[in-house]
Structure formats: structure tokens, C-alpha cells
Amino acid sequence: MLTSDTRRAIRRLSERLNIDVVPIESMIDQMGKTAGGEFLQYLHRPDESHLQNAAQVLLIWQMVIVDGGDQNLQRWHRLLQKARLAAPITDTQVRLALGFLREMEPDMQEINAFQLRYNAFFQPEEGVHWLH
């Protein structure tokens, strides 16, 4: 059962990504009661880093569990870019996702392969150098 606090936490992520709440609610439901509750508590935290990490968990779930196709990858990458949440997936975020998604028993090799595939979006192109 979703309370107003949990709805607010879910809405915070869905509004930032400019998506419907359904994918987030589906992921939380698939996490199971314990891990889903832990994810909601995590999402309640007000700082930007928790929102960023929650978005990366959603991305990993979306690509490893739901649909790992190129079209879906492009779509989610664009959503994260528009929300200013696009960033390489860190090893810490992979561990976080493994914890939240544990009841789905995601394949670690598949997650690592996806991490490399997604992080390739952030590699400088040949001849292009970023100024810091």
C-alpha cells in the first residue's frame, strides 16, 4: 500500500525524469516488500545524490530486467540527460542496484556488461577533448 509519503517520493523521481510513475512503481513492486521499502526510504532522502543513485537503479532495472535493447537504452539515456541525471554508472551504484534488486537475482555479469555499454556514452570521441 502506498502512503502519501511514498507517493511523494516516487513522484519526485518521476517528475524529475518527466515520466509516468508506473515504471517506478513496477520496479518497487518487483523488488519485493523489504527491498522495495528500503528503496522508498532511500528515495525519501532529500539530497541530489540520492535522486541520482535512484535514477541509476531505475536505469539498471529497466535495461537488465525489462528491456536491454538499443532503442530502450537510447530512450533512457535521453530521459536522464534531459533531467540532468545522466552520468556514468559507478561501481557503488551497481552494488546499490544489486542490493535493491536482490529478489530478482540479476546476473552480475549482465549488469557489468550493461555498465560498460552505458558508460561508453560518456567516453570522449576521437579528437574531441573536454576542457575542465
Describe this structure in words.
With 132 residues, the chain is an all-alpha fold. The chain has one domain. Helices cover 68% and strands 0% of the residues. Helix 1 packs across helix 3, helix 2 packs across helix 3 and helix 4 packs antiparallel against helix 5. The protein is globular.
Q: Give the helices and strands as they follow along the chain.
A: HHHHHHH
Helix content: 55-70%
Shape: globular
Report mean pLDDT, rounded to a whole number.
Answer: 92
DSSP E strands, number: 0
Instruction: Describe the main β-sheet briefly.
Output: none
User: What's the number of domains?
Assistant: 1
% residues in beta strands: under 5%
Low-confidence stretches: none
Number of helices: 7
Task: Provide the gyration radius in Å.
Answer: 15 Å
Distance between the termini: 47 Å
Summarize the structure.
It comes from Salmonella enterica subsp. enterica serovar Alachua str. R6-377. The chain is an all-alpha fold and 132 residues long.
Question: How are the elements arranged and paired?
Answer:
Blueprint: H1 4-17, H2 22-31, H3 33-44, H4 48-66, H5 70-82, H6 91-100, H7 108-119
Helix pairs in contact: 1-3, 2-3, 4-5, 4-6
InterPro entries: DUF1198
Protein name: Putative membrane protein
Organism: Salmonella enterica subsp. enterica serovar Alachua str. R6-377
